[in-house]
Design a protein that fits this description.
The structure holds 2 protein chains of 2 kinds. By secondary structure, chain A is α+β, with helices and mostly antiparallel strands. Helices cover about 55% and strands about 20% of the residues of chain A. Chain A contains 8 helices and 7 strands; from the N terminus they run ααααααβαββββββα. In chain B, helix 3 crosses helix 4, helix 4 packs across helix 9 and helix 9 packs across helix 10. Classes of the chains: A alpha+beta, B mainly alpha.
Chain lengths: ~260, ~180
């Protein structure tokens, strides 16, 4: 095939939209044809430049918060209406009381289960922290820029989150990777302070056990701080002193609520 | 928990991660912060209201972008933008393959790291070209997703994308000459 025929398909090739067979043939051609290789390189540069230039506008945080609040309010409206009806209808009183008794019994017997669940979470996150730092490539997105790390997770985890400005805090962002906890995908960020690495895990709150305390038991000299903000559960874990973890947690919480 | 609550929970889970990207797309379409905010607000309101018509398992991102785009096209700014766009974008003859140049607009652009020049070139494109480039290059949508978003066949996506890229290169080339 002549070069002009290959070039006619160049964009489709670079978009990854040719059939597997054509992609293979194109790969082989580009390796042997300097003219097509130069064109491919130029087009890739343009694609990257447009990708970067196109990410230009960010919503005003106040506007975003207002819309999120509206969505939550609209979504909750039917439940509130249902709740009002049930309060004024006394016929519900006995079944509700019976159900409440049953729930209390279940809750009391479930407390010990929850404690062991919390212990399991702490162990699992500590293992992930240690295994990640021991890896040759601990992070999949390497950047100290929160504006690079945050967008990298878009489409990879089913939520979005804000990261704090770290100037003059002593903390440094190293990068991030996608992680899993109990089959739920989440974000794993690595921060550093005074040569100590700290892991921050973020998961959707509703997928995890409820009512977790703000501090979970230490595992082999590691400390773990957890909190919930904007529907997300954050775990801040490391072998540095707990004050550092609390400070990073406070920064993350402020960013999450802004 | 009511069926309504289950559905709104799923909507939040699916839609909120798209918020920032949808806003970026909206401001590229409208060229105005306040109009972009109105557009995003209307998109989320319509999407939440019409979530029962969304088929689970189909492409939610394409569905949201389609709502935003249709809302934009029916707005005053959208009508003005499309009225000035060439109507027979797809019926024009296929673009002539470009001759190979040693110094391409891409290489000059990269060399000079001229972010603003590229943004200005994108801004000047007709809305049909601008939106398809953003969906492909910024949102990294597949041709199938773009076809679903724009409600056009895949062949149209390919030809429009090709023209949009050629138009962007022309714009960049023109600006580099004037610079």
């Amino acid at each position: 095939m002549a070069c002009d025929q290959w070039l006619a398909k160049l964009d489709t090739y670079l978009d990854g939209e040719l059939s597997a067979e054509e992609m293979k043939a194109f790969d082989a051609h580009v390796r042997t044809c300097p003219q097509c290789a130069a064109q491919a390189l130029a087009r890739v540069q343009m694609k990257r430049a447009v990708h970067s230039a196109g990410q230009r506008f960010a919503p005003d945080p106040a506007f975003k918060a207002r819309i999120l609040q509206q969505i939550a309010a609209q979504g909750a409206a039917p439940a509130k209406a249902a709740g009002r009806r049930s309060i004024w209808n006394l016929a519900w009183a006995f079944p509700v009381a019976a159900l409440a008794l049953l729930m209390i019994t279940v809750l009391v017997t479930g407390l010990s289960d929850r404690r062991s669940q919390q212990q399991t979470i702490a162990s699992e996150l500590t293992d992930q922290h240690v295994a990640t730092l021991a890896s040759a490539t601990p992070v999949d997105v390497v950047s100290t820029d929160r504006h690079t790390v945050k967008p990298w997770f878009q489409g990879k985890v089913p939520f979005t989150f804000n990261l704090p400005e770290l100037q003059d805090t002593g903390f440094e962002l190293i990068g991030g990777r996608v992680t899993y906890l109990d089959q739920v995908s989440g974000a794993h960020l690595i921060y550093r302070i005074r040569k100590h690495e700290i892991s921050v895990f973020i998961f959707p709150e509703k997928s995890l056990p409820r009512n977790l305390p703000s501090n979970l038991p230490a595992q082999n000299a590691f400390h773990l701080v957890t909190f919930s903000e904007a529907g997300l559960r954050y775990y801040v874990l490391g072998d540095t002193n707990p004050t550092d973890l609390e400070a990073l947690a406070a920064l993350l919480r402020r960013a999450a609520s802004s | 928990m009511t069926a309504d609550l289950v559905q709104s929970g799923s909507f939040e889970q699916l839609a909120l991660p798209l918020f920032d990207q949808l806003y970026n797309f909206a401001q590229w379409l409208t060229h105005d912060r306040s109009e972009a905010e109105d557009l995003v607000q209307e998109t989320f309101t319509k999407a939440l209201r019409g979530f029962s018509s969304y088929k689970q398992g189909t492409n939610f991102r394409a569905w949201m972008y389609r709502i935003l785009r249709n809302t934009f096209l029916s707005s005053r700014t959208g009508l003005e933008a499309t009225a000035t766009t060439q109507l027979d974008l797809e019926s024009a003859s296929a673009p002539v393959p470009e001759t190979v140049e040693s110094e391409t607009p891409e290489s000059i652009l990269i060399e000079r790291s001229n972010h603003h020049l590229l943004q200005a070139s994108l801004e000047e494109l007709p809305v049909h070209f601008r939106e398809i480039l953003l969906l492909c290059e910024v949102e990294e949508m597949s041709y199938q997703e773009i076809a679903e978003t724009l409600a056009v066949p895949i062949g149209t996506v390919m030809s429009r994308l090709s023209r949009a890229r050629a138009a962007l290169r022309d714009n960049v080339r023109g600006k580099l000459k004037r610079a």
